């Protein structure tokens, strides 16, 4: 048994990959990390000849060594084969000279599909060695994770899933995607609060030992589908390598040449997956972290102080409306020389004071790999308009934030080619996109989607088009302090009724 994963806050106890995936978050509140990450080396030259699914198998073998060859192959096939609208899974789209990695061709039209098609497969295989256990997946979402997780875990045996989302903090399309979800093991609940409230309370539920003990008597374990679960994060490494291969294949770069990636970021999971790829040998010069008006990450990358004590803004890029970026904890663990006690103290400061400052040497190491930028709603709308008018390409607001930040950074670095990660279909945010390009559209969201399609020629993805006729199945709304009681009730109904 390969016990290679430890907590960011306590490295004295090790777990197998399967154990880490099933638990999701460590008992001490830390996140699972692979200590030997910097000893792994990608077979990069060989991977330049692989398709996406072969790359995925290679990455899973490297980071999940307790999965057999047959298990890995089954997981990859069940996750991806025939499940994405493009056979490349995450195609690299050249818009004139701009390289855009489209991550939204999965069932829910957002980048979360890449990880959340895979995680349920990994969890199902992991459960096979725990014969009497059931798993309740708890997830907080700022919009996209929720639906992707619901679709991934829908009707998976011995699992249930409960998704919490901020009642007024997602787009109407994102909400409809969630509340129309079918399946006998799915539950969706709005909370009176923002995403950070949802995320913080989900973590508190995980860390409630009395609740865990009570659920254990019922043979139920809690786990997570957020990128705090290492089984969700690992599959996202693949598309960074795939993008690099496509850049080489299209003669945009030579093999071995360093490139930049610009990533719209809220919870830091997406960009962290790229950092994992770099640690394993992918030639990356800089990761450009793009934030909206909730620019806590921009400020951190500027001065080494993480401070969530600031106004919370609701923006037209709602999936980035986050002030607590959980996955930054994993990055700081590696950058601190794997000093779990130090990370535990930083996270305690974040919890009690709402801020922390990292040591100068850690900050300098972070800056060697990451830089940041941000833009407000006005600049975001302008970026959408510019991209359409200059290139005929329609971007969603999150991608537009990254595009603006990328263009700003190019003034500092014109030497390295950059790949822009596009994280969602523009049709998930049709009113904001339409207004940015053409002015105010129809107030009805679906009519507005149709207007956008007619004027731009960009097709509405089928999973979004059919939402208007689907039955609403989930109407729950609770106060943020009542989430634990809601989970207990849901476990009872789902596994014992």
From TrEMBL:
| Top-tier EC class | lyase
**What's an example Gene Ontology biological process for this entry?**
threonine biosynthetic process
Keywords, comma-separated and alphabetical: Lyase, Pyridoxal phosphate
Q: Which organism is it from?
A: [Eubacterium] hominis
Coiled-coil parts of chain: none
Gene3D superfamilies xref list: 3.40.50.1100, Threonine synthase, N-terminal domain
Keyword Transferase in the entry? The reply is: no
Q: Which PANTHER family match?
A: THREONINE SYNTHASE-LIKE 1
Give residue numbers for the modification (N6-(pyridoxal phosphate)lysine): 112
- How is this protein annotated for GO cellular component? cytoplasm
Keyword Transcription recorded: no
Annotated EC:
4.2.3.1
Q: GO molecular-function annotation terms?
A: threonine synthase activity
| Annotated Pfam families | PALP (PF00291), Thr_synth_N (PF14821)
Q: What is this protein called?
A: Threonine synthase
Q: Which NCBIfam families match?
A: thrC
Q: Which cofactor does it need?
A: pyridoxal 5'-phosphate
> Where do the Threonine synthase N-terminal domain residues begin and end?
5-80
Q: Which family does it belong to?
A: Belongs to the threonine synthase family.
CDD domains attached to this UniProt entry? Thr-synth_2 (cd01560)
Organism classification? Bacteria, Bacillati, Bacillota, Erysipelotrichia, Erysipelotrichales
- Residues forming the Tryptophan synthase beta chain-like PALP domain are 102-419
């Amino acid at each position: 048994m390969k016990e290679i994963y430890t907590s960011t806050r306590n490295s004295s106890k090790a777990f197998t990959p399967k154990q880490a995936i099933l638990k999701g978050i460590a008992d001490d509140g830390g996140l699972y990390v692979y200590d030997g990450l910097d000893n792994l080396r990608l077979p990069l030259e060989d991977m330049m000849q692989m398709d996406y699914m072969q790359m995925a198998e290679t990455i899973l073998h490297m980071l999940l060594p307790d999965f057999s060859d047959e298990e890995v192959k089954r997981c990859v096939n069940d996750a991806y084969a025939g499940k994405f609208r493009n056979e490349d899974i995450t195609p690299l789209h050249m818009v004139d000279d701009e390289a855009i990695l489209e991550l939204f061709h999965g069932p829910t039209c957002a980048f979360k599909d890449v990880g959340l098609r895979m995680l349920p497969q990994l969890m199902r295989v992991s459960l096979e060695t725990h014969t009497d256990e059931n798993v309740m997946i708890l997830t907080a979402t700022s919009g996209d994770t929720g639906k992707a997780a619901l679709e991934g875990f829908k009707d998976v045996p011995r699992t249930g899933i409960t998704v919490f989302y901020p009642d007024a903090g997602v787009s109407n399309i994102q909400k409809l995607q969630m509340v129309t979800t079918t399946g006998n093991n799915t539950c969706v609940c709005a909370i009176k609060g923002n995403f950070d409230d949802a995320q913080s309370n989900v973590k508190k539920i995980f860390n409630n030992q009395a609740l865990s003990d009570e659920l254990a008597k019922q043979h139920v374990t809690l786990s997570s589908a957020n990128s705090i679960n290492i089984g969700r994060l690992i599959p996202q490494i693949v598309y960074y390598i795939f993008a690099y291969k496509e850049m080489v294949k299209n003669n945009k770069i030579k093999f071995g040449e360093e490139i930049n990636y610009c990533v719209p970021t809220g919870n830091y999971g997406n960009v962290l997956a790229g950092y994992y790829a770099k640690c394993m040998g992918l030639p990356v010069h800089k990761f450009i972290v793009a934030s909206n008006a909730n620019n806590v990450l921009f400020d951190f990358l500027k001065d080494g102080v993480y401070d969530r004590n600031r106004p919370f803004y609701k923006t037209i890029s709602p999936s980035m409306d986050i002030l607590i970026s959980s996955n930054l904890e994993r990055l700081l663990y590696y950058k601190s020389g794997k000093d779990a006690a130090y990370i535990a103290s930083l996270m305690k400061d974040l919890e009690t004071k709402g801020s922390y400052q990292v040591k100068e040497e850690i900050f300098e190491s972070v800056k060697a790999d990451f830089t940041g930028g941000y833009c407000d709603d006005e600049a975001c709308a302008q970026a959408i308009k510019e991209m359409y008018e200059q290139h005929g390409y329609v971007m969603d607001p999150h991608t537009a934030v990254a595009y603006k930040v990328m263009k700003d950074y190019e003034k500092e670095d014109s030497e390295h080619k950059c790949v822009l990660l596009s994280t969602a279909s523009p049709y998930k945010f049709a009113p904001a996109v339409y207004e940015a390009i053409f002015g105010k559209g129809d107030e009805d969201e679906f009519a507005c989607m149709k207007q956008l399609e007619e004027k731009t020629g960009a097709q509405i993805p089928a999973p979004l088009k059919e939402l208007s006729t689907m039955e609403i199945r989930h109407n729950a709304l609770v106060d943020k302090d009542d989430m634990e009681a809601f989970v207990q009730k849901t476990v009872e109904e789902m596994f014992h009724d």
